[in-house]
Amino acid sequence: MEKITSLKNERVKNWKKLHTKKGREKEGYYLIEGFHLVEEAIKHEAAIHELIYVSGKKVPATWQHQVHHIFEIIPEIAKALADTEAEQGIFATIKLQSTQPQVNEKQSYLLLDAIQDPGNLGTMIRTADAAGLDGVVLGEGTVDLYNGKVLRSMQGSHFHLPIYRGNLSEWISLLKEKQVPVYGTELNEQAVLYDQIGKQSAFALIMGNEGNGVAKELLAQTDQNLYIPIKGQAESLNVAIAAGIILFTLKA
Amino acid sequence: MEKITSLKNERVKNWKKLHTKKGREKEGYYLIEGFHLVEEAIKHEAAIHELIYVSGKKVPATWQHQVHHIFEIIPEIAKALADTEAEQGIFATIKLQSTQPQVNEKQSYLLLDAIQDPGNLGTMIRTADAAGLDGVVLGEGTVDLYNGKVLRSMQGSHFHLPIYRGNLSEWISLLKEKQVPVYGTELNEQAVLYDQIGKQSAFALIMGNEGNGVAKELLAQTDQNLYIPIKGQAESLNVAIAAGIILFTLKA
Asked: RNA 2-O ribose methyltransferase substrate binding domain location, by residue (chains A, B) (predicted)?
């Protein structure tokens, strides 16, 4: 255990770099914050590199056995590392790892095409987890998974199910080879009503960009495209809400 | 039309006050921003007090006929008034109005108990609109409706359906008098499965605080309490996602 008392310490400078995607990629780590997220990382045996907490903070002894690099910091450093005002004085750095694509028959996936809002991305991953899906695929143009707001909205779900990055068109081909039906989503009323295809034990659902929806080229590759009828005067649903409604309706 | 070129202008100072709840209540107005929201306000004949835009901005002539007080501002003022970085140089102030409670038979309502996150509140109102509900009731402890983030997430749905403020316990009594069934939500697996009660033409659904759920006293007053089974390892669903799933499942 090492004690750090200066904001100018080199480690502190490096940790602060983890607030940007560029910094995370350069350092090879991402930063999580808060008791719940660190607990989830420990519980699910994530590749925790460093455990960092404010001196005097109560931290379970088992955590201290599981992590090699432990740092005690002063409250000023916690404030500088925190992404929110309600910081809890506890952080961890976790190794960035890439997940090799692996498509199985009888599994279900959520494919995300250019999702831009961090809250939407995190919430959809949390929802996919709660619906019992087997993986989430982040297509090109999707916001970085390790953005602070994504991490807060996911509530640790990225420790529960694999998150892939990839070309969605290639993923659709892989899924089709494994006989997994692929459903796109669109606002078009000519599409199939989302609640008319029945429960599915294995499927893939594609949700699209907040402004533009799912790319036309992808919609052309799917087995069917679904839509949710809007009854009131709202123009559309938030993409994460739409994902929740369809996932819970489809998943057997 | 009046042109304002100084950040120190008294009107500008008063508009900036509308960023806080205290300021809104003192002035009696709230501020909306962006072309889409102003368009919705015009379309739905909201009580627009002032229309404010950066000189040179293209604004439909019909809008200018509908609003008496029009101000042209300089980009520096737009920046100071904006709640987001992606400001569009167009704003309006709208009169705060209270909506008298009115419960009708054969109507459906969303009741919100102490919702704290502005994005969750706005998204739930947008979802209630899209599901074809007839009103939303904000119980005590719920974040202010005119908070900038709530306004952005609602996307104008507060112009489409009435939003009430009130004591939820009194609302439940009113709803029962009108034979509208009231459903609470809880995480307890002893509650009724949300998809087992069938489509309803009229109902009220209560969603609760992000951390604590619906207050026990309210759950004791409902006809039934519903729960959504969690299949994966997530501890719970985001409250707005849960609201979306239940509303679209229940609403006939």
From this structure: 31-100
Residues whose CB falls within 8 Å of the CB of residue B236, separated by 6 or more in sequence, listed in order: A130, B187, B230
A248 → closest Cβ in B123, B157, B245: B245
> Which residues of chain B have a CB within 8 Å of the CB of A238?
123, 126-127, 153, 240
Q: What is the pLDDT of residue A27?
A: 96
β-bridge mates for residue B206, sequence order: B111
| Helix (H) / strand (E) containing A72 | strand A69-73
Judgement on whether residues B11 and B38 belong to the same structural domain of the protein: yes
Residue of B nearest to A241 (CA): B241
Burial of B187 (0-12, 13-18, 19+ CB in 10 A): middle
A240–B241 C-beta distance less than 8 A: yes
Interface pTM, i.e. ipTM: 0.94
User: Mean pLDDT lowest for which of A46-50, A184-188, A210-214?
Assistant: A184-188
pLDDT at B188: 83
pLDDT digits (tens, 9 = 90+) for B102-114: 898 999 999 999 9
Domain boundary among B51, B71, B95: B95
Tokens standing for A1?
A: 């255990």
What average pLDDT score do residues A98-127 get?
Answer: 94
Q: Which of residues B95, B125, B142 is at a domain's end? A: B95
C-alpha to C-alpha distance for A117 and A218, rounded to whole angstroms: 20
pLDDT of B64 higher than 90: no
Which candidate, A34, A35, A36, A32, places its Cα nearest to that of A50? A32
| Interval A25-36: pLDDT, tens | 999 999 999 999
Show the domain range for A57. 2-95
Number of structural domains, chain B?
2
Q: How far is A244 from chain B (nearest CA, A)?
A: 6
B119/A241 Cβ within 8 A: no
The answer to whether B238 contacts A126, with C-beta atoms less than 8 Å apart, is yes
Residue A64 has pLDDT above 90, yes or no: no
Query: E strands of chain B, at which residues?
Result: 2-4, 29-33, 48-54, 69-73, 90-95, 109-113, 135-138, 163-165, 182-185, 192-193, 204-208, 224-227
Give CA–CA dist A178/A204, Å, rounded. 11
| Rounded distance between C-alpha atoms, residue A248 and residue A204, angstroms | 13
CATH number, domain of A41, equals 3.30.1330.30
**Residue A190 pLDDT class (50, 70, 90 cuts):** confident
* Residue type for position A186: E
Treating both helix axes as pointing N-terminal to C-terminal, what angle do A239-250 and B239-250 enclose, rounded to 10 degrees?
A: 60
| A25 shares a domain with A117 | no
